[in-house]
Structure formats: structure tokens, C-alpha cells
């Protein structure tokens, strides 16, 4: 318990050998203090004393923001973010660090520093999540492509993950492949299907029977992820992009 004026604030203390500095993270109704494994009670008390004003301001801002919101908006705690075919819960926290940090652990965790104003939170969280999603899908695409390059000697000239106004992927005449980044909202098996589909075009350019037979040798059972994409392609990215990112 830490006292701020006439108010006592309960907090959860967690120690970690993996961190090099102490941290406070605040969400509505919960305060977590992350301490070093070597910290004694006096060091933790001194740290909390130094952060007393920051903690007070952050708690007051959260209370004000929560009171103004009749419903949970997009990109705030409680929102649902589409990711790999399901909706993942978003938790927005406030911490005493200098940078916006984002992680995924059975849901999205976004830590905002104190310089982020309440009115700007939604936009900043949306931007950070979009960047994280793009990095994640690029990593996934490169891993999938590397697997099939090794197994089947399929070597595209280049492979890029990008915004595509139409289509989910493309294989150019020189062997350059494009993949639509919004496939991050589909199950990973669907992303794999699209990547392998475009890799197959390195050997067979058309969409005739020869192509589908060859694709089946690369990815047996491709019909299932293809069917999922055919069914959901009209609304795959709507839940995220319609929120104003």
C-alpha cells in the first residue's frame, strides 16, 4: 500500500530477474509495481516515493477518462482486435516509461507513457497496433517462404508484404511476390495458403488444372483455407480498418 495525500493505493508487487529497471504499470482498478529481484523494502519504498506524483496524476486521469465513456470505444481496454482469425482482447495500460510499448499474450497489451494525452490515446494505440500487426505478418510470411524454399526449392526474386487495394497476393513475371498485409486478420493457415499459392506461380503461371494439381503437392488440403478465405474475404479487415486507422 502506498499513501498519496489522504488516499491509500493498493498495488501488486512483482519481482523479475529479466528487467534492469523498476516500473509502475496502471490499469483501471489495478496498480502493478515491477521490482528487481535484488530490491529490498526500503528501495521499493524509495522508488514509490519518487513516483508518487506520477502515480497520482495517472490515476486521476484514468478515473476522469473512464467516467466520460458510456461505452467501450475502439482501441481502449475491453476492445476486440481481430488477429489470426479471432478477436483478441485489448488492454491499455499506463506506465512510467518513455515509450509506447506493445506485446501480445493471449491478447494485446499496450503500455502508454505519461506524455500521451487522453484525447490522443485511441489514435496512438491504433497506430501502434497496426505497426505491430504489419511487423508480425511480415515475419510470418518470411518464415513460411523460407520453409517452402528449403523443401521445394521455390525461390522468389523478392517477397514483400504491403497494402494491396485488390487481391491477397501476386506473383510478377520476374518472380517478385506481393502479399497483402491484412491477411494477418485471417487464421495463419490461410496466410500460408496465400503465400504458397503465389510461390506455386513460380513454376506454373496459369490457374488451370496443372496449377491446382501442383499446389496440392505443395500444400495438401489447401481447399480448406481457400474456402475460408473465399467466405470471409469481404469482411476480413473490416473490424480493424473501419475503426479509423
CATH top-level class of the largest domain: Alpha Beta
Kindly state the mean pLDDT as a whole number? 86
Task: Give the overall silhouette.
Answer: elongated
End-to-end separation in angstroms reads: 39 Å
How many domain units?
2
How many helical stretches? 7
Counting helices, strands and paired strands, the structural category is: alpha/beta
Helix content: 25-40%
Fourth CATH level, the homologous superfamily of the largest domain: Metalloproteases ("zincins"), catalytic domain
Strand fraction band? 15-25%
CATH architecture of the largest domain: 2-Layer Sandwich
Series of H and E elements: EEEEEHHEEEEHEEEHHHH
Largest sheet features: 7 strands, mixed
Number of separate strands: 12
Give the low-confidence spans. Answer: 69-73
In the CATH scheme, what's the topology name of the largest domain? Zincin-like
Radius of gyration: 23 Å
Pfam family, one: YgjP-like
Organism: Brevundimonas halotolerans
Domain YgjP-like metallopeptidase: 23-232
Protein name: YgjP-like metallopeptidase domain-containing protein
Amino acid at each position: 500500500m502506498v499513501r498519496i495525500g489522504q488516499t491509500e493505493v493498493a498495488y501488486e508487487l512483482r519481482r523479475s530477474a529479466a528487467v534492469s529497471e523498476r516500473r509502475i504499470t496502471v490499469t483501471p482498478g489495478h496498480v502493478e509495481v515491477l521490482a528487481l529481484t535484488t530490491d529490498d523494502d526500503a528501495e521499493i519504498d524509495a522508488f514509490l516515493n519518487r513516483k508518487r506524483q506520477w502515480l497520482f496524476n495517472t490515476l486521476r486521469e484514468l478515473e476522469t477518462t473512464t467516467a466520460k465513456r458510456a461505452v467501450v470505444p475502439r482501441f481502449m481496454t475491453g476492445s476486440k482486435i481481430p488477429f489470426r482469425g479471432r478477436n483478441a482482447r485489448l488492454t491499455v495500460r499506463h506506465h512510467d516509461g518513455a515509450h509506447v510499448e506493445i506485446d501480445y499474450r493471449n491478447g494485446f497489451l499496450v503500455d502508454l507513457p505519461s506524455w500521451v494525452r487522453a484525447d490522443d490515446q485511441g489514435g496512438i494505440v491504433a497506430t501502434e497496433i497496426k505497426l505491430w500487426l504489419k511487423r508480425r505478418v511480415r515475419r510470418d510470411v518470411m518464415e513460411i517462404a523460407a520453409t517452402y524454399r528449403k523443401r521445394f526449392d521455390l525461390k522468389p526474386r523478392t517477397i514483400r508484404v504491403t497494402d494491396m487495394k485488390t487481391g491477397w497476393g501476386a506473383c510478377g513475371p520476374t518472380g517478385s511476390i506481393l502479399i497483402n498485409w491484412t491477411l494477418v486478420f485471417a487464421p495463419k493457415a490461410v496466410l500460408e495458403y496465400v503465400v504458397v499459392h503465389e510461390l506455386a506461380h513460380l513454376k506454373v503461371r496459369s490457374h488451370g488444372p496443372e496449377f491446382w494439381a501442383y499446389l496440392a503437392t505443395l500444400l495438401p488440403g489447401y481447399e480448406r483455407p481457400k474456402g475460408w478465405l473465399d467466405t470471409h474475404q469481404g469482411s476480413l479487415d473490416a473490424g480493424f480498418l473501419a475503426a479509423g486507422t
